[in-house]
Amino acid sequence: MTVSFMDLHASQAPIADELRAAFDRVLDRGNFILGEELAAFEQEFAGYCDSAHCIGVGNGLDALHLILAGMGIGAGDEVIVPAHTFIATWLAVSQTGAQPVPVEPDETSFNIDPARVAEAITPRTRAIIAVHLYGQPADMDSLRAIADRHGLYLIEDAAQAHGARYKGERVGSLGDAAAFSFYPAKNLGALGDGGAVTTQDAKLAQNIRRLRNYGSDQKYVHLVKGCNSRLDELQAALLRIKLRNLDTLNAQRRTLAQQYCRALADLPGIQLPQLNAASEAVWHLFVIRCTQRQELARLLAEQGIATQIHYPQPPHLQAAYGEQSWPALPLTEQLSGEILSLPMWPGLDPQPVIDALRQCTASLTR
Ligand SMILES: *Cc1c(COP(=O)(O)O)cnc(C)c1O
Fold first, then answer.
1. Are 194 and 168 in contact (CB under 8 A)?
2. Count of alpha carbons within 13 Å of 66, Cβ hemisphere only?
3. Is 74:98 a contact under the CB 8 Å cutoff?
4. Which of 66, 87, 225, 285 is 20 to 30 A from residue 215's alpha carbon, by CA?
5. Ligand 1 pocket by C-beta < 6 Å: which residues?
6. Helix, strand, or coil (residue 31)
7. Atom of ligand 1 nearest to the CA of 62
8. Judging by DSSP bridges, how do beta strands 125-131 and 99-103 pair with one another?
9. Are 223 and 217 in contact (CB under 8 A)?
10. How far is CA 104 from CA 1, 113, 356, in A?
C-alpha cells in the first residue's frame, strides 16, 4: 500500500469535461489576456471572499509584492513577517526594498504571535503580514488591534487558506488586503501559476490593477513604473469552474482532519495540530510535531506513506538571507526540526496513514 503526499486526480477527474469545455471556449474566443473570463473570475472570487475588489495576478508572490507596492511601501520601511512561513512572504517585502522583520510563532497555532508583534514595532514599521499558515486563520483581532494602535497596514497572506473563516468571516476580507496563490497544489489551484489580491479599499485596488499592467489604465499611457503580472484568461476560466467546488473540497479536508485527530489522539511521541475554536480552518496541510521527526518520516516511508516538511529551513537561515545577521529565532528553528506534514487531499483514504502511524510511533518509543 502506498499513499502519495498529494493527488489532484480525485478532485479534478469529476470536472475534467468542464475544464476541457472552458479551454475550448477560450481557444475559440481568441482573447487570452485581460478579457471577460478574468473579469468574471475577479467578480466571483471577490464575492466568495466577501471582499469588494479582486485583482487577478500572475502568482501569489506577485500578489503580496503588488499589495506592498500599491500601499507605497519600499526602501527605508519595515514590514513584520512570520519567522515561520514559506519564503515568499519575506521575498515580497525584500522585492520592494523594505526590510522584513521576523516574529516568532505561537506554538499552538504555528501562526505569528501577536504578543511578539507588538515588541517588534519601530518608527519605521509600515505593515504586518499575517500568514494563515497551513489553512488556519491567524489571530486577526489581536493583530488588528496592534495595527490600529500603531497606524499600520494589516496584510493577509492567504495563499494556504482559500475559504477559511475567522469568527465567521472569510479570509480575504479581514485585512487591508489579502494575497492568494493559485499554484496547483493550493486548496484552489489553477493548472499552472496564478494569484489574486482581494481588498475592500477601492483606491488600493486601482493602484494594484495599474501596477499589474505596466502601470497603465489606458493602453500606452503609463502613470507609474508597473510590472506585467496578470492572471490569464485560460487560468481564470479554469479557476471559475474549480471555485464552484472549493467549499465541497474544503469540507472533505475538514473531515479528514477530524479523522486524523480522533484516530491519532492517543499516540505516543507525536503532537497533533491544535484547533483555534474561533476559526474554521481549511487544512491546506496537516502538520504534526515529533522530536524524532527524521526517524518517523523514514519509518512511514518504509510503509509506503509519503510525508513532507513545511518548511525544513526557515527563511532567515537560507543563503538568500545570509547577508544579514538575524536575531535568535529559537522557536522557529525548533519547529522546523520537528514538523511533519501528513498526506492531506480530497479523496484520500486516511486509514492506511493512521495504521502506519500507529505502528511507527510504537517502534519509535521502544
Ligand atoms: C504558495 C505560497 C506563496 C506564494 O505563492 P506562489 O503562487 O507560489 O507564488 C506565498 N505565501 C505562502 C504562505 C504560500 O504558501
1. no
2. 37
3. yes
4. 87
5. 59-61, 85-86, 88-89, 131, 157, 159-160, 181, 183, 193, 195
6. coil
7. 9
8. unpaired
9. yes
10. 39, 6, 32
Distance from the CA of 63 to the center of ligand 1, in angstroms?
Answer: 9
Angle at Cα 29 formed by Cα 27 and Cα 32, nearest 5°? Answer: 70
At 26, give phi and psi (nearest 5°): -70, -40
- To test the ligand 1 pocket, which listed residue (57, 134, 160) has its Cβ within 8 A of the most ligand atoms? 160
Ligand 1 centroid, distance to 87 Cα (angstroms): 8
* Cα 363 to Cα 355: distance, rounded to the nearest angstrom: 13
* Centroid of ligand 1 to alpha carbon of 187 (angstroms): 12
Q: What is the mean pLDDT of residues 14-23?
A: 97
pLDDT digit string, tens, across residues 317-330: 999 999 999 999 99
The Cα–Cα gap between 197 and 215 comes to: 16
Ligand 1 atom showing the smallest separation from residue 131 Cα = 13
Q: 97: phi > 0 → left, psi -120 to 50 → alpha, else beta; which? A: left
Residues in the chain: 366
- DSSP state, residue 14: G
pLDDT in tens, 107-143: 989 999 999 999 999 999 999 999 999 999 999 999 9
Helix (H) or strand (E) holding 279: strand 279-280
CB 51 within 8 A of CB 200: yes
Task: Tell which atom from ligand 1 comes closest to the C-alpha of 64.
Answer: 10
Instruction: Cell numbers for 107, please give them.
Output: 506554538
